[in-house]
Amino acid sequence: MKKAVCLLSGGMDSAVCAAIAKSEGYDVVPLTIQYNQRHIRELDAAKKLVRYFGFREHKIFDIDLKRIGGSALTDEMKVPEGKSLEEIKNGRIPATYVPARNTIFLSIALAYAEVAGADAIFIGVNHMDSSGYPDCRPTYLKKYQEMADLATKRAVEGRPTKIMAPLSEMTKADIVKKGAQLHVPFELAWSCYSGRKKACGVCDSCTLRLAGFSEAGMTDPLEYEK
Q1: Contacts (Cβ under 8 Å, ≥6 apart) of 8
Q2: Helices and strands in the chain: count of H runs, count of E runs
Q3: Burial 52-73 (b: 16+ CB within 10 A, else e)
């Protein structure tokens, strides 16, 4: 059976990505990276999603990106709230960008994939409806694949690990519809940048998620403050 390491943050996009990998017949090995971000709600969500999908093992990897800082998710900077969709998609990189996060995450996943004998790495990055993070772009993923093909024993021996980003060119509405088709438990997936009891409903991530459900003609089952 083909095997895939799936980066599972616990957010909506990573949950749908994991469901896609499972639906395509991969033996999914979920990898969650705890990087000392603002809260651990996503980590709790990832654990619940692993149990729901029935994945047999869950690798949780700890690093401390707070020591680098430079992001509202790892530093004392304020998380932006109350922006419109147009403001979120204006092309400017927001304060919630974590420097080189996907490069770091993919590198950990690539090392783990070599040890686990994985044929693919699934990552739930999204380029169409996003906050404009540079490490979510298809051109970035293409270049990372080229590097991985040069840098790993598996690739040199003719068994490269393929970087899979099935959500990259999908809208948030498309992601919601795909998740519903695959019976993703959206109520378990946490997308909010706050770690409060309920999702805030006003940060960029909540705004994009709620817009996706609205455009898909569906109701988000997650509880929101606003």
Answers
A1: 14, 15, 17, 18, 30, 31, 32, 46, 49, 50, 58
A2: 8, 5
A3: bbebeeeeeeeeebbebeebbb
Q: What values do phi and psi take at 13, rounded to 5? A: -65, -45
Question: Token pair for residue 96?
Answer: 């919630």
- The helix or strand, by DSSP H or E, that contains position 52, with its residue range, turns out to be helix 41-53
Helix (H) or strand (E) holding 60: strand 59-62
The per-residue pLDDT for range 164-187, each reduced to its tens digit, is 999 999 999 999 999 999 999 999
Q: Which tens digit of pLDDT belongs to each residue from 81-99?
A: 999 988 888 778 999 999 9
List the domain boundaries for the chain.
3-170
DSSP strands (E only) in 72-187: 120-122, 162-164
Statement: 3-170 belongs to CATH 3.30.360.10: no
Half-sphere exposure of 145 (CA within 13 A, CB side): 17
The pLDDT tens digits for 104-154 are 999 999 999 999 999 999 999 998 766 679 999 999 999 999 999 999 999
Are the CB atoms for 39 and 11 separated by under 8 Å? no
Cα–Cα distance for residue pair 14/53, rounded to 1 Å: 13
Each residue's pLDDT tens digit, 36-89: 998 999 999 999 999 999 998 899 999 999 999 999 999 989 999 999 988 888
Strand ranges of the sheet holding 162-164, from the earlier edge strand across to the other edge: 59-62, 27-34, 3-7, 120-122, 162-164
